[in-house]
Amino acid sequence: MSDIFQEVEEDVRRERYEQLWKKYGNFVIGAAALLVLGVGGYQAWSAYDTNQRQTVSDQYQAAQIIAPTDTAKAEAQFGELSNSGYEGYSTLSKFNLAGAYFAQGKRDPAIALLQELTTASDDAVSSIARLRLAWAEADAKPRTEIQTILEPLTAEDNPWRFAATEILAYVDFRTGSRAQAEADYLRLSQEPQASPSLRQRAAAIVQYLKANPAAGPAAPAAPSPPAPAPATAPTQGTTK
Question: Exposure winner among 40, 93, 174, 192, fewest CB in 10 A?
């Protein structure tokens, strides 16, 4: 008797499945087709995006190679890459484009581009832009303006504070505040959290100032600005 009830139950279940399939089967087939098409479309897009990124990478490297000898051509290539749509290469290209502008004496567009980069949402990008802008303006602007540019970097917990202090020390020396500059350089040379290169540079400047008490604002020369835009913020004390 139990077998009969089981067969009846299976028939009822089968009939119910058949009714559900007739009602919703087309939707199931359609959803499966969309899934297959979606996977295929994503794979095609992914392959295309990878190829585009490789192309942009090759173009960026080529522009870097020619930059030291043909700044005009490098300017054109970095300008194009800055609008590539790939944020990393676009940002790096803007820093390099500013460098190409400076190399050709095009100061105004270089300054404008660095000012634009200081508003970037990425802290590392905006911080490096501020450092480069401050160095670019260090010989032309009063200390108050340089300090305003660097103010976000001078907090005690900011990893860029030593690099910012170095710029301010240079500006102090240039504007005649020699004692303050020497004190700042001395403090930097003894700062254990500062990078070794910054400590060495600061110590050399302290020695220079002590050996040349009558030296004017023409020396010491400012070091080169930091390299363009790393992807992440530096470790504590890094000055790159």
Answer: 192
Q: Which position has the token pair 């050996």?
A: 211
Q: Encode pLDDT of 165-222 as tens digits.
A: 999 999 999 998 999 999 999 999 999 999 999 999 999 999 999 888 876 654 444 4
In a domain, residue 127? The reply is no
Whole-angstrom CA distances from 149 to 88, 114, 126, 133, 141 are 24, 11, 11, 8, 11
Report the 10 Å Cβ neighbour count for 13.
Answer: 10
Q: How many domains in the chain?
A: 2
* C-alpha–C-alpha distance, residues 193 and 172, integer Å: 22
**How far is it, in rounded angstroms, from Cα 232 to Cα 218?**
35
Buried b (16+ CB within 10 A) or exposed e, 32-44: eeeeeeeeeeeee
